Amino acid sequence: MGVREVPEGRPIRVIVVDSSALHSQLLAEGIQRVGKLQALSAATPADVFEAAAQDQIDVAVVSSTLDEPGRGFEVLRTLRSLHPDLPAVMLLESSKREVVVQAFRAGARGVLGRQASLADLCKCIRCVDDGQVWASAKEMLFVLDVLASAPEISALDYQGMSLLSERELEVVRSLAEGLTNREIGDRLGLSRHTVKNYLFRIFDKIGVSSRMELLHLTLRPSAPWRSSAPNPDLEKSPISEFEICRKEATEGSPEAQIVLAELYRKGQGTSQDSVASYMWCLLSEHTLVDLRERINKVKAQLQYSMNSVEILEAQQRASEWLERSRNQLFQNQNHEFQNHESQNHESQNHESQNRESQNHEFQNHESQNHESQNQEFQKDHCETIPLRRVGVQKESAKFSIA
Question: Cα separation of 227 and 319, whole Å?
Fold first, then answer.
């Protein structure tokens, strides 16, 4: 997330949405009076979305409890998905661990309890506007504990490959060869628009969100689609991840550019080159700036022909789409985690069976040795005792004759 720069001499613009329009107004007036900030009050969450869309605010202050408990978290998630560079502060009714973690997961850059003073709230607003995080030491420990205990799981779903049609698999194989959308379309006889639609459907089925994530999946040697439907051309001339990233990056993909920068930095697939890495970071940053300017230009043009209800509906649709994407990602993570646990369990069972088998063989070997020793002992015992008896009988016989 980038830091929003406030022009020098202009106060920070804040919007407040609380449990009621009256509470929002009172809190906004207090912020403006104590912190010398430019504060607006929002009667509904829609007012916050509209102000953010028109670039009228620098920081949003959202209560966790709006018209109903927990509604603030939903509003904050939507706000973050639509305006990721807009920092937000969440006012919490409770400082419990799960509430604090939920606030940061929803996108808060700062959290503050209801008992905090207006002076502290203004400090919090200035802090998050400066690109920092506002939280107490205890609250930060809550978040760090959750991060430390979270399993590191791959989000890519190999199972989704089995859901792809033959045509979709052809698109995936072409992508793995490093072809662009235009080149894929020329090979398969499709328009660029159709290729793009195919990619979006593939993203949904597999659980990825970009070409680069799909590329990482296809380049893994254990990917099922390689063995089930091999591509002779690909096997003859495999394309490395570095080469594909470089091709995507030169065509203007900001995600490919930052991945290429990482490959240069780590020396993966190429020699380590810090200068090249930094150059691609700069190019990615420049591409993103151009892309954001184009997005804002299109949004501004659309807003002239749309009313607030239509804008809110578009924001709601975007929020629902992102929520579905997050849910799919979460399901994929759970699936991968369960598979990992199942494999560990099977491995432990196999090791246990091997140990039992080894113990059984050892016991059989010990038993055989014991029986062999007993047999040798009995043999020696049986050969010695009769001789002594014979000797006694002979002496006894001699004595009797005498």
Answer: 38
What is the length of the chain? 402
d(CA 78, CA 312): 11
Q: Around 339, how many Cα atoms within 13 Å sit in the side-chain half-sphere?
A: 13
pLDDT at 238: 42
**Residue 40 pLDDT more than 80?**
yes
* Tally of CA atoms within 13 A in the half-sphere of 140 that contains its CB: 8
d(CA 209, CA 215) in angstroms, rounded, equals: 11
Contacts of 184 (CB under 8 A, 6+ apart): 171, 174, 175, 190, 195
Nearest to 168 by CA among 203, 211, 209, 198: 198
User: What is d(CA 379, CA 252) in angstroms, rounded to the nearest whole number?
Assistant: 91
Question: Is residue 161 scored above 70 in pLDDT?
Answer: no
* Of 46, 41, 14, nearest in space to 315 by CA: 46
Q: Which residues, including other chains, have CB under 8 Å from residue 332's CB and lie 6 or more apart?
A: 155, 156, 157, 207
Q: Which residues of 200-218 are buried (b: 16+ CB within 10 A; e: fewer)?
A: eebbebbbbbebbbbbbbb
The tokens describing 171, both together, are 């698109």
Nearest-angstrom CA–CA distance, 296 and 302: 10
Q: What angle do CA 314, 68, 313 make, to 5 degrees?
A: 10
**DSSP tag of 107:** T
Residue 13, beta-bridge partner list: 38
Return the axis-axis angle of helices 254-266 and 211-219, rounded to nearest 10°. Answer: 40
pTM: 0.42
Residue 65 main-chain phi, psi, to 5 deg: -115, 110
> Which pLDDT score is estimated for 398?
43
* Digit-coded pLDDT (tens) for 321-356: 777 766 766 666 566 566 666 666 676 666 667 677
Q: How confident is the model at residue 4 (pLDDT cuts 50, 70, 90)?
A: low
Position 228 confidence tier, pLDDT thresholds 50, 70, 90: very low
